[in-house]
């Protein structure tokens, strides 16, 4: 492993994308009722028109609009009722001038009819005649056969994260199954002589393993599946064994922990040894999150990442690097964000991209973002934030009142 | 069932809350690694300080800050190195005036020391002496024993929807399990003679069952579990049997479909018959979504709701009524929303709350909300929207440039 200089976030992602070119997320077909939140793996083209026939949007009478010209409250038009369309039936009748047929909401409009007059504006006049007290324009209360979806239309795009309404839309065009990307699998390793498990009693000098649980949550929030997790002492042989287990088990192997240089170098050495690419990024120009290490192992189809020990940094870098790579490979939309106005001056670290946690408030003026400040490494500060902003590396900070993009966390 | 007048959304929710008082979501303990997105059922109080001991945030030397007064690049202070604190160890030494000890990032700071000087500003001078080229104030690069979390502090509140960082925080204070609300279970019934299943070939007059799949997605997005779903013809006996099956299977029984008055009355009649409360809301002053029916059956602990056939209305009303009731009963935060500026004049329906789908765009000026217009009943319009706004019943509409709250969908 050669000595590497620190990469920008963009450069690190570009290298990772390039080196992992051979690693392609697999796809599978699933039933639409199980598809919420999954990423669509192919564009969905409708093979049909929806609704497929002209439909009424009201309970009323299907008429020729031209027959109703001049109709009004004091001057009804009289039409002959030639039928009564039942819900769900193919209306066989054809409406000619002077005729009409009853149609309930959602039923098929008979051929010939061009509009629907709501029944409130109609009155039964004789056994087979009604008086119409309102004029209708062509198309009134009519949904055209291809008005919801037209045959051949691309209704959902590859990369779409499936929402409830998409499940309804897929049902409407007869797609009962959908090709989605298989979730990436993750194996999470936390290292550190100072780490104890959450169920151990507290000890002087030791802290509980926070990163494993935060990273499990972050991976799950991106839709990834956790294949395993373990906590190990800072020993190269232990790390080597753990990374081997991770490579066999999962697509993504995360090693988190160690902020000291010696530890990071040990992690880099192991990831270098166990990857086909070797370590190609050793340090990223972000704050917090500098000690990030990236490598790819093509024989096992796995991505190896050393993340900072700093819990906030580990979670954000996981999303900014591994999440971004997933989005890139699946065509998925960027994570949810919103615009807000920062309410205070904020210094950043020129030359490094700064991630700043913020709390969001809704006001009459729009969204207000208030920085959540806290010493490096404190997980509690992150639970008080609604999101984070990214301050560009060529800025020295932000001025109160500036508009910022907030990524929800 | 008496004849009922249309309720406001608030009134309908108030009645539903009142009538369902006896129905309380159950709770259960789950492991924190499986807790993402669940609603916490009790406040979480930390029983410990975190980190529990004074910790260094840098690789460096633990010193008495008072010893470094006046130290600078050209005027070092000389200190005696009396120890080397290992990561994860209880540092037994005590630092006295003129002394120091090496501490790696994250390690325990020995008693007596009040600050850490980064190793970059120190130089080995002799076997057991260093030169310090920087002065440090008390507390520099030191995290206090209770700085992340203090014993007795309420760190997470009942009703919190668990985020990745919360999972880390819970681990840090030794909570390996967390009491959460059990998901509500849902049974979804779509009614209509015009409905065919998504896997059936299209037929004139028939449309595929959209609502079942949209509602499955919406229920899942609220964390509910789907116990079953079925599509039935418009016959009272069939509906009665289906609702009975739903009551036995689930907490929430949804009947969707039918926009015509006759159908709605049939649904209301069955829900009235099969509920202990009887139907107490029959129609809500919202647009779209008026034909909403509510009842509660205490013997089976179930909530019965008739939702509009209109797919967009069905999804939004489900969230605004059933989702809101869930939030109320669990103390959960309101669904995610953001502020935006509406970019066009928009008419609403005075006397009714109007739900308007919008698309969101991020600009230098903030979030812009553009109404997504489309004929009533078209599901495709909803897939083009990022959220919806709620226009109050006493407004006649909105003016371009007004600030609105957008609920993400």
Structure summary:
2 copies of one chain form a homodimer. With 409 residues, chain A is α/β, with parallel strands linked by helices.
Describe the structure.
2 copies of one chain form a homodimer. The first copy, chain A, has 409 residues and is α/β, with parallel strands linked by helices. Chain A has helices spanning 9-19, 164-172, 211-221, 236-249, 261-273, 311-330, 379-383; strands spanning 27-31, 44-45, 55-56, 60-63, 77-84, 99-103, 115-118, 122-126, 129-132, 142-143, 154-156, 177-181, 185-191, 195-196, 207-208, 225-232, 252-256, 281-282, 286-287, 293-297, 302-307, 337-342, 346-347, 353-363, 366-371, 387-391, 397-398, 403-408. In chain A, helix 3 packs parallel to helix 6 (311-330). The relative contact order of chain A is 0.13. The first copy, chain A, folds into 4 domains: 9-26 and 183-330, Molybdenum Cofactor Biosythetic Enzyme, Chain A; 28-49 and 157-181, Alpha-Beta Complex (Molybdopterin biosynthesis moea protein, domain 2), CATH 3.90.105; 55-143, Molybdopterin biosynthesis moea protein, domain 3 (Molybdopterin biosynthesis moeA protein, domain 3, Beta Complex); 337-408, MoeA, C-terminal, domain IV (Beta-clip, Beta Barrel), CATH 2.40.340.10. The interface between A and B is large, with 107 and 108 residues.
